[in-house]
Design goal:
This protein is α/β, with parallel strands linked by helices. It is built from 7 helices and 12 strands. 27% of the residues lie in helices and 20% in strands. Strand 1 and strand 2 form a beta hairpin.
Length: 298
């Protein structure tokens, strides 16, 4: 740690706990307004990033990493609507000419440990959606992988850049939902709640983009196994976090979605998440469910 970093951390200690998360960025990471987006730099390297803005509509698939994805027959489930892919789940597109709409990564540890995997996902995506910590890591590792890729930058509520930690609040008309324990946000100015699983973050980001029909695949939440092979398997804390954090937050998020008029369906062949939170349908029956022609199964 150099002198500038030591002095910066001392300054943050003086500012107080509401600013301590700035240590993730350090004094060399800068973000300036640039028209409709930002100019982001870390040291001598920089890139342009867009704001996350509402402008989409209709249905989107969120492809998670649960092993049930491997049991889905056929490929049409991810071809007939925009897809948001998280972490290593882009491997479902491996060996195809398909590109997917959004690659959402908010785990800097994944980027550091699975760099080649991350780069492969970036290449297959039309848009890369990242928080500030991930973008800083990319700029410091190899900014050339971004090329002319559309980069969309957002904040997480636990580490907003250049802002103090936000105070949670229940203000539905501003896209903020809080019950004293669980938080759900579709307000980019406030930031999004990560809460132990990127699948929860993906739901908030999808709605913030404007989608009002959300289809989950691979939302198994059953442990550490994933549908794709890993050279160095990523550690999973789902079993430890499920009862205390993950299920209660999804239950609160489902309430928020009903308030917002957003339809969410879990099309994972098997899932730990109760159907009382998100209704369950077979992967091949999603369109019929979204169009109201069939009801969900228990």
């Amino acid at each position: 740690m150099d002198l500038a970093e030591i002095l910066y951390r001392g300054y943050l200690l003086f500012r107080g706990r509401q600013y301590w998360h700035w240590r993730y960025y350090g004094p060399s990471y800068r973000v300036t307004e640039d028209g409709s987006g930002y100019r982001v730099s870390s040291g001598k390297v920089s890139c342009r990033a867009e704001r996350l803005v509402r402008g989409e509509s209709g249905a989107i698939s969120i492809i998670c990493s649960g092993p049930s994805v491997a049991d889905i027959k056929g490929e049409s489930f991810f071809r007939n609507r925009p897809s948001m892919v998280v972490n290593g789940s882009h491997s479902i597109y491996r060996g195809t000419d398909e590109v997917f709409s959004y690659y959402l990564v908010a785990d800097v540890g994944f980027v550091r440990r699975q760099w080649k995997n991350f780069v492969e996902g970036v290449k297959k995506a039309r848009s890369l959606l990242v928080d500030h910590r991930v973008l800083k890591e990319v700029l410091e590792t190899d900014p050339d992988i971004l090329g002319d890729k559309k980069v969309v930058l957002f904040d997480q509520v636990k580490r907003p850049f250049n802002k103090p930690l936000p105070t949670p609040g229940h203000v539905p008309e501003q896209g903020l939902f809080f019950n004293g324990l669980q938080e759900f946000s579709i307000n980019p100015d406030h930031g999004f709640a990560g809460v132990k699983t990127v699948a929860y973050l993906a739901l908030q980001v999808s709605i913030a983009l404007g989608y009002d029909q959300i289809v989950y695949y691979g939302l198994d939440l059953g442990g550490s196994r994933r549908f794709y092979e890993e050279e160095s398997p990523e550690k999973s804390m789902i079993d430890q976090d499920y009862e205390q954090f993950i299920e209660p937050h999804f239950a609160w998020g489902a309430d928020a979605c009903r308030t917002l008029g957003v339809k969410v369906v879990n099309a994972s062949p098997y899932s730990r998440l109760p159907a009382s939170i998100f209704p369950r349908v077979e992967p091949g029956s999603v369109e019929e469910f979204l169009n109201g022609r069939i009801i969900a199964r228990d």
